[in-house]
Amino acid sequence: MTTTDKPSILTETRDGVFIITINRPEVRNATDFYAARELTRALARLDSDPEVAVGIVTGAGGHFSSGKDLKAAVAKSPLPTDGETEFVPPTRVEVRKPLIAAVEGHALGGGFDLVLACDLLVAAEDAVFTCSEVSRGLVASEGGAARLPLRVPYGVAAELLLTGTPISGIRAAEIGLANRVTPSGGALEGALSLAQEIRRNSPRAVLATKQALRAATLKIEGEVFDVHDEIFAPVLAGPDGEEGARAFLERRAPQWPSSW
C-alpha cells in the first residue's frame, strides 16, 4: 500500500472485541506484501491492547480472502523503501488472545490458511472454502498442509489439499471445521456473539485455557512447518507457480512445466 491508497487493513474495537477487516474487495481481499504486513501488525495490536479480549478477522465486500494476490506476484511489485521488508507472516503469528474467523464468500488458498490460523470459525452457510494452491502450481505452505490435518480427519484433509475441491460453510461444520454457521451476511454478527460469550469469562482463565489448548499443537506445528518449508522450497522456487498464476489471470488451463 502506498500513502495514496486506501487502507488495506481496517481495525475497529466494538464492545471489547477487536475486529480486523481485510479491505481489498476489488481483488476479493487477496493480500499483497503490504496487506500481509499490515495484518501482522494488527494482530500484534490485538495482543497488546488491554481493552480488548477477543479478535475477529473478516473481509470486506462479501468475501473473506482469496489468498495471495497473484497479479501482484506476477508483476513482481517492488518492495517498500521504508526498510521494513521482513515480518512474520500473519498465518504464523502466535496470538495470545482468542481469534475468530468470520467468513462470508470465498476463503481460498492463503485465505483458507488464515482461517486455520484462527482458533474458531463462524461461517456463512454459503461461504466457500478451498485449498486451491495445487491448482495454481503452489502449495499450502502457510498453514493449510500443517494445520488442516490437525483440525479434520486425515482423509478429509487429504481430499481438500490434493484436489482443491471447494466446500461450503455447511460442509465445513459437518467436518468439524466451522464452530457455527449463519445465514448469508450473518458471519460477523455470529462471530461477535461468540466473542461476547468468551469475553464474559475470567480473562486470566481464558488466556490460560487458550495457552493450554495451543500447547498441545504448537510443538507439532513448529516441527511440521520446519519440515514443510524444506519440502516446499523447490516448489515455491520452481516455474509451476508462475505458470499457474499466469494461467489464472489469463483465464486458461495451465500448461505445467513439471512432470510426474
Automatic annotation (TrEMBL):
Signal peptide: none
CDD domains xrefs: crotonase-like
Membership in a protein family: Belongs to the enoyl-CoA hydratase/isomerase family.
Protein name in the entry: Enoyl-CoA hydratase-related protein
